[in-house]
Amino acid sequence: MTTESTTIKKTALKMVDLAKMAGVSKSTVSRALQNSELVNLETREKIQALAKEHNYRLNTQARNFRLKESLTIGVVIPSADEARWQITDPFFLELLGSISFSLIEQGHEMLLSGLSLHAVASGHDGLRRINCDGLIVAGQADCHEDLNRIADGNTPVVVWGARLPDQRYCSVGGDNRLGGELATRHLLDLGRRQIAIIGDWSTPEGHLRHAGYRQTLINSGLSPNPALEIALESGRDSHREAALRLIASGQTFDGLFCLSDAIAMAAINSLTEHGLRVPTEVAVVGYDDISLARYYTPSITTIRQDRELGGRLMVEKLLAMIDGERVEPGLLPTDILIRNSSQG
Predict the structure, then answer these.
(1) What would the pLDDT profile of 225-252 be if each residue is shown by its tens digit?
(2) Are 11 and 155 in contact (CB under 8 A)?
(3) Contacts of residue 136, Cβ cutoff 8 Å, sequence gap at least 6
(4) What is the model's pTM?
(5) Which fold has domain 176-305?
(6) Which fold would CATH assign to domain 61-174+307-332?
(7) Domain map of the chain by residue range?
């Protein structure tokens, strides 16, 4: 996994650069872009022409922030079909609660939107339509390139998700590869050798968790078995259907790594219905540590993602960006919580 620190900054032209080009002060540039009559018409037109030529827009968000005005922050759930599971996944609902609480605490408002990130990245008027001062995106889904294009412009954006090598936007999230390694290592330490996996590894986070699972098996002298790797398919009951496909495959397995707690719950239910005892016959590990995980029967061993810290960090980093500061991606602590689904 790439661990090097990447500073996220806006690459657009700054007001000080525009002032140097026009041979005037920053305050004159600011007034000219607001079409103030305090600046003579010739200078105004010159500055506005330079701004248009270099695709510069006045950062009114930063001005509002410095004046302590209440901001409206758009919180976007990616609208791609592949991302629909996020709307009902308990982890994302709890993450949204943390974001909302952090914004209210800071005196700002949250606007939940199903805005198309592709429309924003393509220069359409989506942001103008919802009239927000910055964006928090709850998951990358298949929108990585759209998010890069949004970050290249003047829209402050922070994303929940994985760190990617060619990333130009600020992300906050856990160490997903490490999470996959911890889950698989735990099952191996319990003496399990036929370890299956269920999840969606078409997303950046899922891909890294899957990679951690495979590499840990290889490092332990075991060859990953593609027949034990069950990818989610589309549909309302995809978690349960994936577990049933694994059971129906006839493959022997004594351990199961699920890429979310929601998948783990569906899998445990299906295993129990088919007479497979958890954890005696199949030890199960989930991911996320949603609130229900500790109260489920059996309670679920899981990789913890601190959604409260994650929501707070996303808000802090977005507000810093709006105020013109440079920010770095946030990597949350990643650890395993051992409960009854893996060792009763």
Answers:
(1) 999 999 998 777 899 999 999 999 999 9
(2) no
(3) 73, 74, 75, 76, 99, 157, 158, 159, 160, 314, 315, 318
(4) 0.78
(5) Rossmann fold (3.40.50)
(6) Rossmann fold (3.40.50)
(7) 15-58, 61-174+307-332, 176-305
